[in-house]
Amino acid sequence: MTFDSPATQGPPEVAVTEDPASTAQSGGKPEQAEPTAPVQEVIGVRHGMFGVSGTGDTSGYGRLIRTLSLPGSTPPPYGGYFDEVVTALARALSDTVFAAAIEKIVVDRDELTLHVRREHLPVVARTLRDDQDLRFELCLGVSGAHYPADTGRELHALYHLLSITHNRRVRVEVSAPDADPHIPSLYSVYPTTDWHERETYDFFGILFDGHPSLTRIMMPDDWRGHPQRKDYPLGGIPVEYKGARIPPPDQRRTYH
């Protein structure tokens, strides 16, 4: 699987149409081209509801076939203020750093997502915060995602940033392989990520390097595993109720 990167394109530019008719109708000013939808990247195929197989299921769910895909890279123009954000970031980072740091740019469902290579995350985040044309001063939260079929990029961390100065939003997404789940912490750039990164570590197992106290925040300290990963056992742990021991849902006896 390959991912498009702006490495050979330089800083993105906003394309404009040169159609004479449209220029005349707009009073001599060229119109901005419509943003192009991203191409979907297929990462796998799922058979059955929740991965069911070989169970004799007669509900119809066992025969469901669903293609698993993620939005691919979106070509410019991106529409709205997205072009201004991308252009300002490319200018602030320089062409070389921008090409090395940004893996792909995705505009999907009217939201701008910058996929950043993890080793460049602190530099990109600090630039987004400090540059006068960007000024994303607030990190609204950190969330995680687990895509077992996305080989080499199974774990994702997502940072939601808000510019109070310009009233703009952007999402920064970083990925890491399951075998090396390390991502630099943004605590030094956005101190509000303290508990959010702890929660993402607790539920997904992402290790945020440089975090001042990366400990569990929801589950007990001696808990094994990370409950929101796709490979976590369905049903969790047995339940004890009035002296009775009830197994997890996926281990209970079924009646036909």
Overview of this structure, please?
This protein has helices at 20-25, 82-93, 95-101, 121-130, 193-204; strands at 40-47, 65-71, 102-108, 111-116, 138-146, 155-163, 168-176, 182-184, 207-209, 239-241, 244-246. The chain is of the alpha+beta class. It has a five-stranded mixed β-sheet. The chain has a two-stranded antiparallel sheet with strand order 1-2. The chain has a two-stranded parallel sheet with strand order 8-9. Strand 3 and strand 4 form a beta hairpin. Helix 2 (82-93) packs across helix 3. The model is unreliable at 1-26 (pLDDT under 50).
SSE layout and pairings?
Blueprint: H1 20-25, E1 40-47, E2 65-71, H2 82-93, H3 95-101, E3 102-108, E4 111-116, H4 121-130, E5 138-146, E6 155-163, E7 168-176, E8 182-184, H5 193-204, E9 207-209, E10 239-241, E11 244-246
Instruction: Using the CA coordinates, give the radius of gyration.
Output: 22 Å
Question: What is the CA-CA span between the terminal residues?
Answer: 43 Å
Mean residue pLDDT:
82
Number of strands: 11
List keywords for this structure.
alpha+beta, 5 helices, single chain, oxidoreductase, two-stranded antiparallel sheet, translocase, 11 strands, disordered N terminus, quinone, NADH_DH_suC, 256 residues, 5-stranded mixed sheet, 18% helix
Can you summarize this structure?
The chain has helices spanning 20-25, 82-93, 95-101, 121-130, 193-204, and strands at 40-47, 65-71, 102-108, 111-116, 138-146, 155-163, 168-176, 182-184, 207-209, 239-241, 244-246. It is an alpha+beta fold and 256 residues long.
